[in-house]
Amino acid sequence: MFSPEGPRLRELAVQALSSVEHGYDLLAPKFDHTPFRTPDSVLDATVSALRRTGPFDAGLDLCCGTGAGVEVLGQVCRESVTGVDFSAGMLTVARNRVRPPGPPVRWVRADARALPFGPVFDLVVSFGAFGHFLPRELPALFAGVHAVLRPGGRFVFPVVAPPRPGSLTYGMLLGFDAVMRVRNTVRRPPFVMYYRTFRFGDIRRELARAGFLVEFQALPEFGRRRDGSPKVRLVVAARAGA
C-alpha cells in the first residue's frame, strides 16, 4: 500500500493514537506517498468536469491537506485560489510543494467547521476529507460552505460508489471503522476517520437542508458497475442565485 518513501508502521500507529490535527502534522512530510492522497486520476477527471462548466473566479479547497485540490483550482480559476486546513504541518508541506499555474494562492489555517470567510468564493472543492466529520457535524459543515459561496457558486467533490456487501473491500472498510470506534472509545482525544459514515442519501439530504441545489454527475473516465451505476460521481451542489 505504501511506497518506500511512505510512513512506517510505527509512525502510522503514533499518528492513529494522536488527535486528528496532531496526527496529520506528523504524517504531513510523507502524506503524498500514502494511499490516503486522492489519486491523480480522480483529480484530473474533476478538472475535466469543471472545465466544462467554468471558468470560475475565486476558488477554495476545503481541508486542502498538501494541496492537491489547490492544483485543481489553479487550472479552472482566474482570480484567486485559497487552501484551508487545520493542520499546520500539512499547510507547510503544501506551501513548499504547490506552485500551480494561474492565479495567486493563499494558505489559511482554520477549522472547516468555522470558516473565517464571507461569501467570496465561486467554487469550493474538497477531496477525501469527509471521513473526518461525524454525521452529526455535516449540517454545520455544509451550512458553512454555503455561507462562503457567492450566489450561484458551487460546492463540488467526488464520491466513489460504495463497495458491495460481502466484497473484500467492504470487509476491509468495515474492519477499519470498527477498529477506529474501539480506539475512540478507550482513548482521548479521538481520531475521527471513518470510511462508511458518508453516504449518498445523507449527502443529498444534508446539502439540501443547507440550501443547496444538488445533482450527481457521473465521471465517465471510471466507467460503470454491472448494475449500470457510475463507479465515481461528482457531487455538484449549487447555491441558488445569479
UniProtKB/TrEMBL annotation:
CDD domains: AdoMet_MTases. One of its GO terms (molecular function) is methyltransferase activity. Residues 60-153 form the Methyltransferase domain. GO terms for biological process: methylation. Its EC number is 2.1.1.-. PANTHER family: METHYLTRANSFERASE, UBIQUINONE BIOSYNTHESIS O-METHYLTRANSFERASE, MITOCHONDRIAL. This is Class I SAM-dependent methyltransferase.
